[in-house]
Amino acid sequence: MYYFCNTLIDYDPRQGMKITILQIDTEWAHPGSNIAKAEAMAAAAPKSDVYILPEMWATGFAATSPADAYTQAPLEWMRSTADALGAAICGGAVAMETDGTFRNRLYFATPGGKTLHYDKRHLFTFGGEHLHYTPGNKRVVANYGGAKFLLLTCYDLRFPAWARYNGDYEAIIIAANWPESRKDAWLALLRARAIENQCYVIGANRTGHDLSCTYPGLSTIIGPRGETIALANGDAEQNVTADIDLEQLRQVRDRFPVLKDRDSITIIQ
């Protein structure tokens, strides 16, 4: 049986938040270069409440070589940068457990050293990820700045039951390395998750190339009616920034209460 975990990190009852996606062109296996690039992008972005980076943003998507991609540097940078910017930093990295197993982990770091994480539940079997990583079994919601964010990673986007709204979030963050060949599915699924859950969806994808794929970027922020609030301008490395309005979200859910008519479901292993 999978279980659900609402983790409170911080709370400040504001009505709106500014979100910035750092759409980075990850240099394969060069965390130092990628960290420097992310730092420059964050410094150039509008002052935001939450900054979001893609899946395994500091190393590239190491589906079959987690030992080579494992480093504490991305997490250390996210923690220090959260303090420096007075904002939350969310991004993915390879994590190693004490038993030597690896997780595809999405971190959410906030000022003051608070950090929680989500381990990717749906490993990408098509690329062999399941042979080298252990899947997560907890759905994690981060509460920060008065907004609650469901944390998901890449392939999780294809599984709506795992993302299903349970009265516990206003926005979904999806950190991804989603390839050019499936870019239409990326945009369609992001919009579907927003519409069916009446929530904001924040899709942070990388751009550029690695050893096996080309990535289109297409990082986007979508509103609870399925409307595009912000979309990357082409596949260039860039920041994508928008405000999410929590009062407007409440009004959408109150005025068109489709969530009350959902079917009851149970997720079992």
Secondary-structure blueprint:
Elements: E1 3-8, E2 16-23, H1 31-44, E3 50-52, H2 66-69, H3 73-85, E4 88-96, E5 102-110, E6 114-119, E7 138-144, E8 147-153, H4 160-163, E9 171-176, H5 183-197, E10 200-205, E11 207-209, E12 214-216, E13 220-222, E14 228-231, E15 238-245, H6 246-255
Rg from alpha-carbon coordinates = 17 Å
Q: What are the secondary-structure elements, in order, as H or E? A: EEHEHHEEEEEHEHEEEEEEH
Mean model confidence by pLDDT:
94
Strand order of the largest sheet: 1-7-8-9-10-13-14
Low-pLDDT runs: none
Q: Give the distance, in angstroms, between the N- and C-terminal Cα atoms.
A: 5 Å
What composes the largest sheet? 7 strands, mixed
Describe the structure.
The chain is of the alpha/beta class and 269 residues long. The protein is built from six helices and 15 strands. The strands form three sheets. The protein has a seven-stranded mixed beta sheet, with helices on one face. Strands 6-5-4-3-2-15 form a six-stranded mixed beta sheet. The chain starts with a strand and ends in a 14-residue tail after the last helix. The mean pLDDT is 94.
